[in-house]
Amino acid sequence: MSKLDLMLFEEEYKLLQEIIGRLSKDASAKVVFLVDKNGQQIAAAGDVKSIDATSLASLTAGNVAATDGLAKLIGEKEFSLLFHEGEKDNLHISIVGKRGILVVIFDQNSSLALVRLRVKKASRELQEIFDQVELRAQKELDPGSRFESPFSEITDEDIDRLFGD
Amino acid sequence: MTFINYASREINCKIVYYGPGLCGKTTNIQWIYEQANPEKRGKLVSLATETDRTLFFDFLPLDMGTIKGFKVRFHLYTVPGQVFYDASRKLILRGCDGIIFVADSQRARMEANIESIANLATNLRENGFDIRTIPYVLQFNKRDMPSAASLPDLERLLRFRNEPMVEAVANQGVGVIDTLKAAARQILMELQRA
Questions:
Q1: Inter-chain contact B95–A55, Cβ cutoff 8 Å?
Q2: With a CB-CB cutoff of 8 Å, which residues 61-90 of chain B face chain A?
Q3: What region does A67 belong to: left with phi over 0, alpha with psi -120 to 50, or beta?
Q4: What does the alpha-carbon distance between residue A7 and residue A145 come to, in Å, rounded to a whole number?
Q5: Which of B4, B12, B68 is facing A154, going by the closest CB pair?
Q6: Is the pTM of this model over 0.80?
């Protein structure tokens, strides 16, 4: 497995979920998503069913990637915050550490100032969890690690079954 | 970068369709979208120009079923093929797990194919990947065209690492699933080698 693989275990997932659940309430947001910079959704809180989360994750990652490209063009490291203002709903996108993107959707029940404030605190907490995930992943790369991947015995038949053969 | 979520027992893999302009990348994933069970597929997102040329990317999430108790989900992306969208192509390769190179079989497009493979190698390298080792499938699309080059010619010009080759006519669905399957096989086998 490439050393870049992101593996999330139950306890880490719960912690991430807890943080964004709290953020969603504290910021009076409609929905909060935590997505990975490659466009995969990691966790969500709030009125999740109202939005196509998979498309949102992929488009957010595309948006952040494009903005990153723009930043580099003008000599910036990154733009850590994107804000889109709509007629009813607004989108607050911020970068968490090296691999996370936090998306907060909110309406007139909240304000940009409140969202920014709450996001700042939540980002620090999320960053700590991401650091732990990274640390553990590095330990597992260690040849002496006792971690055993459940995928060590994937067979051709397993793959054929995925395609309905 | 495969994302394995042990809490929700999901594996997410990102597969990128690459190739020169008008080779049929979008056609491949459109066909998959049309054929897939509506419960298994997500929305097909296309960021295209008014003339239906890919501007940034197309995106299709697909639920494939389970493997070792884990739900397998593929995220299929295409890149914009036109030469001047290179900055966007580079971004889409970020964190990919495997590449499907869609070559246009027409003789007149051979130079464009070769240039696109060279461009892929450069852009992969800039994202920290090696074109010689990343899961990779070569699809020869448009096999039905009268001006299509012969298979041995295509192989000689475009194949460089003993990668699986699939002949295709993507707008009729020929070879589309076989191509995806060949990529899936390599990516999932990669997990096994962990």
A1: no
A2: 61, 64-65, 67-70, 72, 75, 77, 87-88, 90
A3: alpha
A4: 15
A5: B68
A6: yes
